Amino acid sequence: MNEAKQFRRVWLITGAARGLGAKIAEAALAAGDAVIATGRDTKAVTARFGDNPAVFAVKLDVTDEAQARAAVEMGVAHFGRIDVLVNNAGFGLLGAVEESSDADVRRMYDTNVFGLLNVTRAVLPKLRAQRSGHVINVSSIGGFRAVAGFGAYCSTKFAVEGLTEALHAELAPLGIHVTVIEPGYFRTDFLDASSLAIAPHVIDDYAATSGATRARAGGLNRQQPGDPAKLAAAVVKLVDSGTPPVRLPLGNDTLAAIEQKSAFVAAETEAWRAVSSSTGFEDA
Questions:
Q1: Domain boundaries, the chain
Q2: What percentage of residues in the chain have a pLDDT greater than 70?
Q3: DSSP assignments along 186-228, one per residue
Q4: pTM for the complete prediction?
Q5: Which residue among 126, 140, 157, 210 is the active-site one?
Q6: 3-class SS at 92?
Q7: Which of 23, 100, 126, 139 is flagged as catalytic?
Q8: 139 an active-site residue?
């Protein structure tokens, strides 16, 4: 076992071989921390980080609950503890809701939602025993507001947001922080075929809505405005904070989306206030 005391913290990061997961791992390492870097292919993890004593590569398919438990036990056996969990593994599905097949949606939920739950349940006993730690769930701009063409994907991130809120309420009394981060469009491989499935069934009636999103996504690939290295630095700053937020929007596009949706919800709520308030018993 490597002596954990030589590291400030020990992170467990899912989907650490590439994309945001790899960038967050690199930022944690640069901050003097150790990383249990998990992925379906440990060779890809090792190729990314090389022979670094602060990195322990562990095979993990998050959809396998037994494998999640084993990965946690191996990580703790290696470094002695886990201080930060980053639930990053996930992928997207581009297509109108009606165009999205049952198989594709279920496969996405298995990773984005049930996989996150598998890993979280495996790590929490360690954090509860320590009465410390930080769980970071990677959501999306689509976890705050849904758009045509990403409906099924956004629904998985809405689920992540709800789980995070509940976990925050459950774990705060135990000294454990929980935060959901909401990245906008960052220049990663998310829009590549390796991270984004595209519904093969196209319905012409959605050409102006979901179809337009398909077209824009192709042009945006590798041109996204967000810098992944800066996002990773922000995540380390988040973990360094003594009072981390429940939600951390990342990117000007996410900030704009939150402001626009908040204004829309406020206006719509006010417009329908009379109907909303008319549904109670008269003596209530």
A1: 4-256
A2: 92
A3: BSSSTTSTTTEEE-S---GGGTTTHHHHHHHHHHHTT--SB-H
A4: 0.92
A5: 157
A6: strand
A7: 139
A8: yes
